[in-house]
Design brief:
This protein is an alpha/beta fold. It has a single domain, classed as Flavodoxin domain (Rossmann fold), CATH 3.40.50. It has six helices and nine strands; from the N terminus they run E-H-E-E-E-H-H-E-H-E-E-H-E-H-E.
């Protein structure tokens, strides 16, 4: 499991997924992207990648890693999820409609067999002054919270656990050995919120 997290929320989600998979009997190696220079999916039965969004962009190290290992990832069971505050909004809370997931897929050359997107966390007191100012502006533009004391978690943990169960239940082995849908992907159905979208900063 490869994780990119700036403020810790994506790591918390990865740790929840890892705990579920370990409880189901899987041996799971969790590697942070900053420690993944020599990490490879070779030798693993499944690859799971979780990536935060910062200022409208997936971590460029995750994109580069996925591009570098795309052939191997496409030949094995694999999953990708994005963590971004835009996913709190109805219509942006599905992997097939979330703009950051779709942009990642266009650039990475990897077609994960399981896709998901989770809303992140807004934690103004944690940010440095510049980040706080930028994020407040983005939230003002998008109709989100702007009080600099705001700490709000948008993550739906029931949905995270549902994705964890799907990972536990996913067949292992090389691509093509399972009975997934015609699209080759599974996306967990959301429990959406309403609002509309603009590039945003987190997680």
């Amino acid at each position: 499991m490869l994780c990119s997290s700036t403020d810790g929320q994506t790591r918390r989600i990865c740790e929840q997924l890892r705990a579920q998979m370990q409880e189901a009997g899987d041996a799971v190696t969790l590697t942070m992207i900053e420690d993944a220079r020599d990490a490879s999916p070779a030798g693993f039965d499944m690859a799971v990648v979780g990536a935060r969004i910062r200022y409208g962009r997936t971590d460029k190290r995750v994109v580069a890693w996925a591009e570098r290992h795309a052939a191997q990832l496409n030949a094995m069971p694999s999953a990708f999820f994005s963590v971004n505050v835009v996913a709190r909004k109805a219509g942006k809370d599905r992997a097939d409609t979330n703009p950051y997931v779709q942009k990642f897929l266009r650039h990475a050359g990897w077609r994960p067999r399981m896709l998901e997107v989770f809303a992140g966390k807004l934690d103004y007191p944690r940010y440095d002054p510049l980040d706080r100012a930028i994020i407040r502006f983005i939230m003002w533009v998008t109709g989100g919270p702007t009080d600099p004391k705001t700490v709000v978690e948008f993550t739906d943990w029931a949905r995270v656990r549902a994705f964890g169960k799907a990972l536990c239940d996913a067949p292992r082995g090389r691509a093509g050995s399972s009975s997934y849908s015609d699209s080759g992907t599974i996306s967990i159905a959301p429990q959406g919120h309403s609002e509309t979208q603009t590039p945003q900063p987190l997680q």
